[in-house]
Design brief:
globular; alpha/beta; 148 residues
Length: 148
């Protein structure tokens, strides 16, 4: 993997990964800050729950920040499970994200000059809300997005 330019917005899903492989991917991409965009930072894979993951990243000298307000709200996730309509899900999530402009502006300002990586479970970024968050951050900051 080529070195990622500082300021690039990275995204990654931990589905099918170990913590060690995730950290190796983040190191190769030179990620400095991981922004966990799960509404609830808990996992059936205990090493990916908030505190365990934060500790592992700290040992790897990567900062961890949980931003649950950028997670997909439970009603949207439940509707997607019920009807499988990804188009409606992404439309609803984009509408929800419009209510988070202050949070997004702060994130852009706080991460200027740093390589950040948005983290969620879903392996395929095209099926994950983090791609919408990354797209919005890129629009606001002029940064590029790279999906790991």
């Amino acid at each position: 993997m080529a070195e990622t330019p500082v300021g690039t917005i990275l995204t990654v899903g931990y589905e099918g990964r170990t913590v060690a492989s995730l950290i190796e991917t983040l190191r190769r991409a030179r990620a400095q800050i991981v922004i966990d965009v799960r509404e609830n930072p808990f996992s059936r894979k205990p090493h990916f729950s908030k505190n365990a993951l934060a500790d592992a990243l700290l040992r790897a000298r990567i900062r961890y920040v949980h931003m649950g307000e950028l997670g997909s709200p439970r009603p949207l996730r439940e509707a997607l499970k019920q009807n499988g309509d990804e188009k409606s899900f992404f439309t609803a999530f984009r509408k929800y994200l419009l209510t988070k402009k202050t949070v997004l502006k702060s994130l852009v300002a706080d991460t200027a000059g740093h390589s950040v990586c948005l983290l969620c479970f879903e392996k395929d970024y095209t099926k994950c809300h983090r791609s919408v968050v990354a797209e919005k951050l890129a629009d606001m900051s002029g940064r590029k997005v790279e999906n790991l």
